[in-house]
Amino acid sequence: MKFHSNCLCLYYRSSQLRRLEMVYGIFNNRSMTDALMKFPMLEELNLYLIKISREEIETIGRYCPMLKTLKVNEGACSFQVRDTDEWSSISYNEIAIAIGQNLLKLKHLELIGNKMTNVGLRVILDNCHHLETLDLRQCLYIDLKGDLGKQCSQQIKYLKLPNDSLEGCPYIYNLSILDLFKWASDPKLFHGSKLP
Question: Whole-structure pTM over 0.85, yes or no?
Answer without folding.
Answer: no
